[in-house]
Amino acid sequence: MKQQLLVIGAGFGGLWSALGAARLLDIHGRQDVEITLLAPQAELRIRPRFYEPDVHSMFAPLDALFDAVGVRFVKGTAESIDGLTRRVGYRDETGRPGHLTYDRLILASGSQLARPPVPGLKEHAFDVDQIESSARLERHLIALANQPASVARNTVVVAGGGFTGIETATEMPARLRAILGEDQNVRVIVIDRSKDIAATMGDGIRPSIIEASDALGIEWIVDATVAAVDAKGVTLADGRHIESHTVIWTVGFRASPLTEQLEAKRDGQGRLHVDGNLKVEGIDHVFAAGDVARAATDDLGNYAAMSCQHAISLGRYAGNNAAADLLGVAPITYRQPKYVTCLDLGAWGAVYTEGWDRQLKLVKAEAKELKTQINTVWIYPPAADRRTALAAADPLIPVA
């Protein structure tokens, strides 16, 4: 009977975990291990692009790629993990329950937007967290053209001034004018609890964000929080009310709730503490990759961020090391010392930095060209060719 290596999740971490494992099995000529990937759909959803229009097209089918590298795909949503019996419970697309057993498990179930109990948030706010919610926002924006002109119709409020909030906000002026007309006076407002504009992004990148915001007419309200959302806009904690028919929530992300199924240490974002080989601390048979893993990228105290940049590399290492664990060969210690930031800033351009201290390297058109390359080429899966795909899964290939 074949040993079972189970991957949960078809995002960046899950896809590259499966490819990383397939690569090592191929190198050793082993056919006694079966790789199974469990996910709601056999597609890589290009989540970093969900702030853009035409979001319904931002996925890459994976069936042919899985067939090429010998990964079995099971369509379903994982619901439970039993570490004692090494079983994962799931429901298929019809709602019927099922289970899968494993000898080694790679948890790569991603993250989700945090939704605190803000009154009216669930009923009235939009987000760009998933294709479905982003498509709902897109339909809403298009439908604004059917409403009579008003301040509320022409105003978008983005709650959160982090990476996702900034990319969403800077894209909005062009999207609104394309829908409502170039002559319309549109307004985009970012609400952020930090005391300065884009404070969490660091001093190296902030001047570009401020310049782009000024050029695009984006307003920032800092040192402020959203107290409530209603059909007519948002109310801030200090009592101010902003009229808007479009409120977009981008504040905070948490690891998949599946991490809570394991008796293991987690950080404040719900991520599992892993060792240098990406094995979950205290659990011999479970590895973690992508947004569910709290993984040290170097020996300087830096940890992987919730980003495709880190998830791709984490997946390569986790897949390699989970397979190595089954084969009894040496693992490869995860290291990803190079860190870059490429932030889209709408019609103004983009900004590109290197290092955890975000040293400015490219701005405006040059950075925009790089961002476009990243978003449309680099983060997409490899071709459905066995040799090409397995070569791309080498954990020692630098991501950035």
From TrEMBL:
It holds the Pfam family Pyr_redox_2. Residues 4-312 form the FAD/NAD(P)-binding domain. The keyword Metal-binding does not apply. InterPro entries: FAD/NAD-bd_sf, FAD/NAD-binding_dom, NDH-2. Keywords: FAD, Flavoprotein, NAD, Oxidoreductase. The keyword Secreted does not apply. One of its GO terms (molecular function) is NADH dehydrogenase activity. Transmembrane segments: none annotated. Belongs to the NADH dehydrogenase family. PANTHER family: NADH DEHYDROGENASE (PTHR43706), NADH DEHYDROGENASE-LIKE PROTEIN RV1812C (PTHR43706:SF45). This is FAD-dependent oxidoreductase.
